[in-house]
Fold this sequence. Notes:
The structure is a single chain. The chain is mainly alpha-helical. The protein has one domain. The protein contains 21 helices and no strands. It has helices at residues 3-6, 8-26, 31-50, 66-85, 97-116, 120-138, 144-175, 180-188, 192-196, 199-216, 225-231, 234-258, 263-288, 294-319, 325-355, 366-369, 371-385, 391-405, 409-435, 448-466, 469-480. The radius of gyration is 21 Å and the shape is globular. It starts with a helix and ends with a helix.
Amino acid sequence: MDLIAAITPEWVIAAFVVAVILLDLFVQEKRLLAVVSLFGLAIAGVYAVVFYNVMEGFNQMLVVDGYALFFKLLFLGIAFLVILASNDYVKKLGDAVGEYYVLILLSTLGMMLMASTNELISIYLALELTSIPMYILVGLLKDDKSTESSLKYLLLGAVASAVLLYGMAMVYGFTGHTQLSEIANVLRAMTPDGIMANPALLLGIVMLIAGFGFKIAAVPFQLWVPDVYEGAPTTITAFLSVGSKAAGFAVIMRVFYSAFGMPSLGGEWGMIFAVLAVLSMIVGNVAAIPQINIKRMLGYSSIAQAGYLMVGLATMGFAGVANVNGQSGVMFFLASYALTNLGAFIAIIAITNALNSDNISDFAGMGKRAPVLALALTLCLISLVGMPPAAGFMAKFYIFRGAVQADLLWLVIIAVINSVISAYYYLRVVKVMWFNPAASEEKVPSSVALKVSLAIACLGVLAFGIVPSILIQAAQRAADLIVF
């Protein structure tokens, strides 16, 4: 199979982007746009599943391997649940409903390409295709908070993009190649002392980490997160919190596995990610404690979650690319985190639509007013803490076990302590919902589509917590099949 056929899922999404744009011009019933978007995502997902056993489609720019297909299915699933949960929320967007669906599809297309890119220039182009629609989506409400958040995200994103591009230029200037496998061949031909004695190469790698660090919301590149999470439409906050993060980790693992995976460099960038993991966990968890806005709290939570995920990146560096525990641990964690965070935000969408408030104190009495929503949100918050029987427990256990096997026990101890700290602010929301008196007895309505998306997310959180072997095996298989 040639590459053109192998990237059929991307062609499908691109075709449906055009279809939604054209339909938006002539159709008055905008809900049809959501149906068409969901149909396009479903068709792309079917093609991705069909091609899961086809690994020969690759060239200088793109590669279709098990690793790429794992992430493509993840991105398509994320976009599907977000659009499904947007049925009520899009009424706030006025005439921008069509643009909303088009931009989500475009950003999803960029994420899918990020997972397949095998060359620095195509990585940058895919990243920009992912990011530019995100900048617009954040400001789609066009109120003061939304506009301010979009501007901050755009300006800081532009700086991060420039840093990333300059890092790529440094690596290219030293190796003379932009394809990841060719970069690796140049570095393997050098002695470890020769590599470490070249400041331009090392600076390029550090700048790549900084540029990608913005995408995954790692400290000290996280300053945009709380304001953007609070100001963006809640559905887009959900999409940004899991889609952008998963895409960032997908491309980081591809680059550092394929281009810089040799033992002489692995320990160096592994230690950088270990230090960033510690900083992200501490800053994210401590800053989340005093928050009164649930979206800002989950923004800081996502910084801490990036720290836990970077434990897996550190494991990759120290254990070596032959050991897939780091890669598969991050992949399992990302899939579990995507379901968990989407479930939390979907429940929040329904609650805040009724309350017209994001303040945690206003969630008082939700256990009586909306017991199903409160139960779903409780399950997802428990999963974010890392408590059984939710998927978050198995995700942390799996990623921490790999780190211990790579002699990173000190890092795991810090991560466990931070998980305990995080229980305070996650369970505070649970306490408010179930034990604080309600200000009103009025029930909280929600659409059938939102209930379906919430049920899918919560069932996934429970299923992968109780029977994690299916997802673990899929992650291990995808990590084994990465082409380099």
